[in-house]
Automatic annotation (TrEMBL):
The gene is folE. It catalyses: GTP + H2O = 7,8-dihydroneopterin 3'-triphosphate + formate + H(+). GO terms for cellular component: cytoplasm. Pathway: Cofactor biosynthesis; 7,8-dihydroneopterin triphosphate biosynthesis; 7,8-dihydroneopterin triphosphate from GTP: step 1/1. Residues 8-182 form the GTP cyclohydrolase I domain. It comes from Hydrogenobacter hydrogenophilus. One of its GO terms (molecular function) is zinc ion binding. This is GTP cyclohydrolase 1. Zn(2+) binds at residues 74, 77, 145.
Length: 186
């Protein structure tokens, strides 16, 4: 889905007018263009080559990338939510480049989202593409819709998880994952 840059610029201009701002004032006059370019950039980052490697077919232990920075936008209020993602998988003949795990998080987070959906989308994408023995995804996020509006209580983290395969069926595997993502925090 390509971004309609002209429609985006019109929408931002209307939004600024609707909240009582002058879209022609110095600080705002280029804002519609900047916002449109930002969404075009997000659109480009959602598409990436998920390169797989089959030559590492004998590796069958957990692969974990933790503390991946995540930035997304709450679809209910269009305010940011941000935090960390922890992703693990246990290969079954196929591995991916480690950067692809980070790119997967970014690809799904750069659109209006719900944290719960984002967590599941990442896990499902990895299960479908890697065909691993299992996938585990944990997101720890602060939502500005709770921090700067509504309850106005900053600093709270919302934690969601998605477990697939052996992470769901094998308690030892799940516990190892949870212990590894907590290790530095203790």
């Amino acid at each position: 889905m390509a971004v309609d840059k002209e429609k985006m610029k019109q929408a931002v201009r209307l939004f600024l007018e609707a909240i009582g701002e002058d879209p022609n004032r110095e600080g705002l006059k280029d804002t519609p263009e900047r916002v449109a370019r930002m969404w075009e950039e997000f659109d480009r980052m959602r598409d990436f080559d998920f390169k797989l490697f089959e030559e590492f077919g004998n590796y069958n232990e957990m692969v974990l990338v933790k503390d991946i920075n995540v930035y997304s936008i709450c679809e209910h209020h269009l305010l940011p939510f941000f935090g960390k993602a922890h992703i693990a998988y246990i290969p079954d003949k196929i591995v991916c480049g480690l950067s692809k795990l980070v790119r997967t998080v970014r690809a799904f987070s750069l659109s209006p989202q719900l944290q719960e959906r984002l967590t599941n989308q990442i896990a499902d994408f990895l299960m479908d593409n890697l065909k691993p023995k299992g996938v585990a995804v944990v997101l720890e996020m602060e939502h500005l819709c709770m921090s700067m509006r509504g309850v106005m209580s900053p600093g709270h983290l919302t934690v969601t998880s998605a477990l697939r395969g052996v992470f769901l069926s094998d308690m030892r595997t799940r516990e190892e994952f949870l212990k590894l993502i907590r290790k530095e925090k203790e």
